[in-house]
Amino acid sequence: MIRREELILTLLHVTSAKLRARPYTHPNSDFVQRGKLCRKVMTEMDREHLIGNTVAHLCNANKDIQLRQARIFRKAGPEYGQRVAQSLGIPL
User: What is the pTM of this model?
Assistant: First the structure.
């Protein structure tokens, strides 16, 4: 069994490596899975809890940050973004 210290020392001995960037080829955007989770997996009660928790964390943020976040949430699902904005009292 390798001790943690040995593993760290082994990792630190790497002196060079060749890295290549590869283009991102996945067909989904960053918001597709989040939107599907909200629409197809969560119950209405789950969505209400999600929106309530989101609003509770955003309620003391600056209005420009609230608006930016609501627009991001709208990309995952129009209803999600709209409900967050409505609960925060900001137009979307």
Answer: 0.67
**pLDDT at 72 exceeding the cut of 80:** yes
| Sign of the dihedral defined by the CA atoms of residues 83, 62, 68, 55, in that order | negative
d(CA 10, CA 29): 37
Quick one: three-class SS letters along the chain? Answer: CCCHHHHHHHHHCCCCCCCCCCCCCCCCCCCHHHHHHHHHHCCHHHHHHHHHHHHHHHCCCCHHHHHHHHHHHHHHCHHHHHHHHHHHCCCC
